[in-house]
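Today's session is about reading a structure prediction critically. Students often jump straight to the picture, but the first step is always the sequence itself: look for stretches that repeat, for charged clusters, for runs of hydrophobic residues. Only then move on to the predicted structure, which in these notes is written as discrete structure tokens rather than atom positions. Here is the chain we will use throughout the hour.
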Amino acid sequence: MSFVSNLILATVRMAIPLLFIALGELYSERAGMVNIGLEGLAAIGSLVGFLICFITGSTWLGILCGALVGVAVNMIYAFATIQLCANHTVYGMAMNIFAPALASFIYRVYFGKGSDLSQITLMKGIGIPVLKDIPFIGPLLFNQTPMVYLAILLVIFTSVFFSKMRSGLNYRAVGENPKAAATLGINVIGTKYLSCVLCGALAGIGGAYLTTCYSNTYTEGNIAGRGFIALAAVIFGRWSAGGILIACLFFGFCDALQIRLQVASIGIPYQFFQMIPYIATVLALSLIGGKKLGPKAAGKPYKKEER
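Below is the predicted structure for this chain, in token form.
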């Protein structure tokens, strides 16, 4: 029971950063913006979140600044793909190269190349009265950091927004047929920029979560492919908030399992266990991901002058 409870707790903790990043990609793709630069956005958000928390001592301020820097960096991608109609994949990969390198540069300038790992105080958990006292489930699910509750609320809001609200349906129309949406008076360019703001903010928050709520230090490469796994979670989750939540919990479980198998002293090289989340990602995409297409205009340039 101890192993199971620790595994469930780790699954939730591992899934939350994936959930923030994947929801950011959902908002992006629903407006036709396929942003594969999530890894880079999360990396710069992780560094800035840690650095601001280290300087000010405030985890909330660190998360806020992580979101802001994610937006700022993603505006490069937005301008190139929306205004210049550049290829989404090319500039997404450019973000994956530029942003982690920038984060590494800032860290080394501030802390020095050979300095010891600096540490911060992580965000404290908040227990929900009554619910936290439920046997077994209560301490695991209802005694978490506020970011966990925020992520769940965001899933609920996103699901309602895209399925029930008129503004959400207009938002989706931009990703399905932007020219038809424009004829209805919908601001296509504005919606696309808004999607990049939301994607950058949520990806930055996902990265900042890792250094303010999960680990009290920053190390290069701490994102470890989570941006690409989050991209797979959007496809695996069928471009819906509820499906993405289930997908992130699945990938979070795989990540939590491989960590516990590493420390179990089974006698198998730990590198084999580290492959589990990535193998699960490839299998999920190969078995399920290709059965349904996403928004029809995703990744296609929108030129206002064309008919």
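Discussion point for the tutorial: Residues 118 and 180 are 53 Å apart (CA to CA).
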